[in-house]
Design goal:
The protein is α+β, with helices and mostly antiparallel strands and about 250 residues long. The chain has a single domain (about 1-50, about 105-240), classed as 60s Ribosomal Protein L30, Chain: A (2-Layer Sandwich). It has 5 helices and 14 strands. The protein has a 5-stranded mixed beta sheet. A 4-stranded antiparallel beta sheet has the order 6-5-4-14, covered by helices on one side. Strands 3-8-7 form a 3-stranded antiparallel beta sheet, covered by helices on one side. The chain is globular and about 55 Å long. It starts with a strand and ends in a 5-residue tail after the last strand.
């Protein structure tokens, strides 16, 4: 698998309507079956999802953005506000500082991913492309952040290993590969986390993305899982409060 990051002109808050033109000016080239990974921050700035520091206190902004949140005093030494946002457990509902602004997560992430994928296909004249919008977050019991998929388009998010045999000829068990987050983790490592100015990554030779869509009759085949049904449900029994964005 090959990953190449690309420099773009700086995407500037609070809203940068030249975002797509700046991508076209980059040295990005594409082939059929490439994956385009793109930082959620620049997608959000394109959408105008930026709030000046002075307008809202960060904690209140996080609570507005969260689907569910825990009060700050629920984390050790009040380090973060834990939230659930778009079915992802992450600190701070994805509210990140950038210059004098707080950048929020993209609006309608699935629809946005589909829109961007259509633009890349049309602009680069490719029929078979795939796209992931990335961000990064911390993981329980680990220091540091790792990439995850805010959203994706063009491919099936689960690759099913449940009926495959292992190297000794036995059923391999019940695992399914989380394809969007796997792609995002690799892409974010290539993008960097500071001032690299490479929010765009081309990935070539990525496994699973061209697989045919799996059948999804049973709820156990769905990509998203409720916090009540999750295997980590015992660890999620906390006094969650519904945020303004909570469904």
């Amino acid at each position: 698998m090959e990953l190449v990051s690309f420099v773009t002109e700086i995407i500037t808050p609070p809203k940068d309507e030249s975002f797509l033109e700046k991508i076209k000016k980059s040295e990005l080239t594409l082939q059929d079956h490439d994956v385009v990974a793109i930082s959620s921050k620049i997608v959000s700035i394109w959408q105008g999802r930026c709030v000046p520091h002075a307008r809202d206190q960060k904690d209140e902004l996080i609570k507005k953005e969260a689907d569910w949140y825990l009060e700050r005093d629920q984390s050790p030494e009040g380090a973060v506000i834990h939230t659930i946002k778009n079915n992802v457990l992450l600190p701070g509902a994805g509210v990140d500082p950038f210059g004098g602004w707080y950048v929020l997560l993209p609006e309608k992430p699935k629809e946005t991913a589909e829109e961007l994928l259509a633009w890349f296909k049309k602009t680069y004249r490719m029929e078979h492309l795939y796209l992931v919008i990335t961000d990064s977050k911390s993981a329980p019991l680990r220091r540091g952040v790792v990439g995850y998929a805010v959203s994706w388009a063009g491919f099936e998010p689960l690759f099913d290993n449940r009926h495959r045999k292992d190297l000794l000829g036995h059923e391999s068990g019940g695992s399914q590969v989380n394809v969007p987050d796997s792609i995002a983790a690799a892409a974010v490592l290539a993008m960097g986390e500071a001032n690299e100015q490479t929010p765009l990554v081309r990935m070539r030779g990525v496994p699973y993305v061209s697989e045919k869509r799996a059948k999804r009759e049973a709820r156990f085949n769905e990509y998203l899982v409720s916090k009540e049904e999750d295997i980590y449900a015992p660890l999620l029994k906390a006094p969650w409060k519904k945020g303004t964005s909570g469904k």
